[in-house]
Amino acid sequence: MSEFELLFDYPLLAHNTFGFDVRAKYAVRLTEEAQIPALARDTRIEGVSRLVLGGGSNVVLTRNFDGVALLVELRGRHVIGEDHDAVFVEAGAGENWHEFVAWTLSQGLPGLENLALIPGTVGAAPIQNIGAYGLEMGERFERLRAIELSTGETREFDRDACAFGYRDSFFKREGRGRFVIVSVTFRLPKAWTPRADYADIARVLETSGANDPQAIFDAVVAVRQAKLPDWRVLGNAGSFFKNPVVSATAFGALKAREPEVVSYKQPDGQFKLAAGWLIDRCGWKGRAIGAAAVHDRQALVLVNRGGASGAQILELADAIKRDVHARFAIELEAEPVCL
């Protein structure tokens, strides 16, 4: 099968983790790779805007979408090879990310355990270059395959072509909206070393007395569940703001004014600041504008308490950004894509 069914006036409530009740004029469920080139040839949607959605965990939908939503449901996960140093694992873009990480461990292939319980799909992971607890996905990335929507042609992207940055990639910038990622291949090291330096993770591991890949996976899950709301219960997109990175000079000036500022020195001498700490210090933790609120346990997470719109979430985010800039002279940047 290479053709697709065009769905009309399609609800996107189940396709965004904020739980916004918006609709797409058209939608297509992509269950087979061969369906994607057919999109470029279909006259019914010629010239129509496209929105690629995986789990919808990194998007703020502020209104109905007057175009075609491409719902990526491509499955499959396989060990495809190895070399002297690593094992290569490929997964379909529609695979659930957390379930994929758990599967790699079940195959005896550690390396992704620090990224457990991050919501979303495998195909979304390289777009955002997801990261947590001392590991970014880009460190384990080998290549991906993507299909260009305008031509239907398949392209392969290596790490350099993806241009990974902090919560950033080619696909969030020049490539935004141009491609559907169909599969991602990861390079998992044979010589595994633990990443367990973060205090929260270290405390859990100390209690359990273990330090193997499964123990780190379990610790990450426990910490994330304790700190972050379940999007199925309380709509959210995880961390809403990036942790800002500042120069050593700027950090020194900030430290002089705010001795308790939470920071992490970077290899290049810059300092990454904890955006949640900045927001908390501005008094926003637990506060709300209507049904849009800052989570009461983690100030980095904005939540939909029920009935909030995407526009209200952005109104809240803008108010937070203004206060943080006024107090700290730091510009916060949103992680999710806002449409």
Q: What are the secondary-structure elements, in order, as H or E?
A: EEHEEEEEHHEEEEHEHHEEHEEHEEEHE
Q: Judging from the principal axes of the Cα atoms, what is the shape?
A: globular
CATH topology of the largest domain: Uridine Diphospho-n-acetylenolpyruvylglucosamine Reductase, domain 3
Total number of distinct structural domains: 3
Overall SS class: alpha+beta
Q: How do the strands line up in the largest sheet?
A: 6-7-12-10-11
Radius of gyration: 20 Å
Report the major sheet: 5 strands, antiparallel
CATH architecture of the largest domain: 2-Layer Sandwich
Q: Percent of residues in helical segments?
A: 25-40%
Low-confidence stretches: none
Looking at how many chains there are and whether they match, the oligomeric state comes to: single chain
Question: Could you walk me through the main structural features you see in this protein, from its secondary elements to its overall organization?
Answer:
The protein is an alpha+beta fold and 339 residues long. The chain has 3 domains: 7-72, Uridine Diphospho-n-acetylenolpyruvylglucosamine Reductase, domain 2; 77-189, Uridine Diphospho-n-acetylenolpyruvylglucosamine Reductase, domain 3, CATH 3.30.465; 235-338, Uridine Diphospho-n-acetylenolpyruvylglucosamine Reductase, domain 1. The protein contains 9 helices and 20 strands. It has a 5-stranded antiparallel beta sheet with strand order 6-7-12-10-11. Helix 5 (199-208) crosses helix 6 (213-227). The radius of gyration is 20 Å and the shape is globular.
